[in-house]
Design a protein that fits this description.
Its cofactor is [8Fe-7S] cluster. InterPro entries: Nase/OxRdtase_comp1, Nase_comp1_asu, Nase_comp1_CS. Belongs to the NifD/NifK/NifE/NifN family. It catalyses: N2 + 8 reduced [2Fe-2S]-[ferredoxin] + 16 ATP + 16 H2O = H2 + 8 oxidized [2Fe-2S]-[ferredoxin] + 2 NH4(+) + 16 ADP + 16 phosphate + 6 H(+). Keywords: ATP-binding, Iron, Iron-sulfur, Metal-binding, Nitrogen fixation, Nucleotide-binding, Oxidoreductase. By secondary structure, the protein is α/β, with parallel strands linked by helices. Among the domains are: 195 residues, Nitrogenase molybdenum iron protein domain (Rossmann fold, 3-Layer(aba) Sandwich), CATH 3.40.50; 143 residues, Rossmann fold. The chain contains 22 helices and 14 strands. The chain has a 6-stranded mixed sheet with strand order 1-12-11-10-13-14, with helices on both faces. The protein has a 4-stranded parallel sheet with strand order 3-2-4-5, with helices on both faces. The two termini are 20 Å apart. Bound molecules: FE-MO-S cluster and 3-hydroxy-3-carboxy-adipic acid. The site of 3-hydroxy-3-carboxy-adipic acid has 13 residues, from α3 and α20. FE-MO-S cluster binds next to α3 and α12.
Length: 532
Amino acid sequence: MSKERDLLLDKYSSRVFKNRKSHITQLEFGENPDEITANTRAIPGIITARGCCYAGCKGVVVGPVKDSVVITHGPIGCAFYSWGTRRNKAKPSYEGEPNFVPYSFCTDMRASDIVFGGEKKLEEGIDEIMKLFHPKCIFICSTCPIGLIGDDVQAVARRVEEKYGITAIGYSCEGYKGVSQSAGHHIANNGLMRYVIGKGEEAPKGKYSVNILGEYNIGGDGWEQERILKKIGYEVVSVFTGDGSYETLKNSHLADLNLVMCHRSINYIAEMMKTKYGVDWLKVNFIGVGATSKSLRMMAKYFNDPELTKRTEEVIAEELAEINEDMEYYKSKLKGKTAGIFVGGSRSHHYQMLLRDFGMETTIAGYEFAHRDDYEGREIIPQIKADADSKNIEEISVERAVGYEDRYSEEELKVLRNEGVELDNYSGMIKDMKAGYMVVDDYNMFETDQLIEEYKPDIFFSGIKDKYAIQHGGVVSRQMHSYDYSGPYAGFRGAVNFGRDLTMSLYTNAWSLVKPPWKTMPMLEGTLGGAG
Ligand code: CFM
Ligand code: HCA
């Protein structure tokens, strides 16, 4: 084993060592460097960066749907902590369109409700919501105690639908389901597929129409993508789910193509829409100048229309001309610097492309809750063995709906794939990293410290839980989840914002003035994870 990998593992007890060893790989070194264990339970007692199933369902996938009310069925803390912290922006698309994103709705379950049951309280809460806000769709998101006391949120949803003639979805997305947020993504996808997608009949008017899947409009990223797509001439039917709406999601099956940004959180819907409605899906990445141009060119190739190809090239040229000077300036400041990126899912991969635009290398990276396919590529899926935790999450199967046909035959799709159009597929992060670089799944605070010590990255991208601890050590850290209240970072203009923020962070002299306490005080010695 390499010295660097040893450093992460040698303080662990033998039990913890054995577990963590398979989640850590140093690329192109050691046995099976391209293989990694992922999507398994975190070790109790270890400070993982992960969140819960409710966070994945409520916070990530259904929370951003602006014209729908999301009610947290559970104690107030769950609703409060998931209120606005993710920075998924939304605004009405036309005058009078409802936008409930700034609100937080909760049943505020107390001890007596836990004893006597909370269904009544939930229904009363929904009656109040209907009276005050009259939404067309309500998502009920359960937190941990709901599953334990057995409230039937699906039955409540059916009663609400009958009473008010709206769409209501009861989600059993209790925090403890699965092993991370990832279970919540899957559960949320299933509900949207069952009860929302396909309900509308409004066909797109444009010649070429798309949905953007797995784009949550953090810091306005989705708006920048829509701006570029509309400039080229695409019609954006719906966005799942950043600044998205029930009114548009229900028509999404009528679009020509699904663009998939964050595959981790939404690949289930992409696959099911292909099976049921024949809509192909294309893995795109609008993070990075090179990546954005590549994605736009793949789209033009897919539609295979000379006019569209010409317009695509014109727009890319115009956009590049607009940002060129700024990009060159920030590149001169950032070139040669190194980064670590540790985020939940696809961003740890996506942002490596943007960093490369500035001449920066990502030497250490990892995901909180991704699956092996996010590391190793989608082709690995048949080899992944389902365990008890993943079997616990419902897989729904769909069939081709009457009247829907594939746009291209399998042969034609093969030709497109050979031409580099990444249809129904995504590659893994490991393939885009270099020999010697380290990849760590479900990283924890101890490993974060060790990685920084050994690799000494100039900047460490992560989240709220570890950012300040890292900065106390004198290392620059920026939040890759919330963008530290900045953004957008997507597309052409977003790349400039990112370069500006990085330059500001790296060139402040504060970091050299920080003296972490452990540099002057002796540290505790011991073994992590109990006696060997
Ligand atoms: Fe996808 Fe996301 Fe991410 Fe994600 Fe998340 Fe997020 Fe993330 Mo935080 S959907 S996997 S569950 S890109 S909330 S917008 S930043 S961990 S890397
Ligand atoms: C979540 C949301 C989160 C948390 C961010 C962080 C987000 O996982 O529930 O830990 O800094 O992006 O807001 O990922």
